[in-house]
Specification:
101 residues, alpha+beta, two-stranded antiparallel sheet, 36% helix
Length: 101
């Protein structure tokens, strides 16, 4: 078994014309978002739980398909993506999602 740890971005999300009370929480992993590592919830906890479930399935699928998870390029892409929108998001200093497969 191997453990994969990912940094998670968690942000409030709503349509511009909606009141703040209608906002939901969006959680995603910048390095894997293009593969589907994103989810949402009505609370931060729900968004993170939904993301955990999605990422577990995604990593298992990628490994079953023989895709290697290239952490060097993922980390470079993650830093680039985060620096572009850092003012609008909260990013943990430590990984929030760990997947064991």
């Amino acid at each position: 078994m191997k453990t994969y740890s990912f940094q998670v971005v968690l942000e409030k999300d709503k349509w511009p014309d909606e009141p703040d009370e209608k906002a939901v929480w969006r959680a995603y992993i910048p390095a894997l978002e293009h593969k589907g590592a994103a989810s949402w919830g009505y609370t931060q906890r729900e968004a993170l739980k939904n993301l955990q479930d999605a990422v577990e399935l995604l990593v298992e699928y990628l490994l079953e398909q023989g895709e290697e998870i290239d952490f060097e390029s993922l980390l470079a892409n993650e830093e680039e993506n985060l620096s572009e929108s850092r003012s609008q998001i909260q990013v943990s200093d430590v990984p929030l999602i760990a997947v064991i497969v």
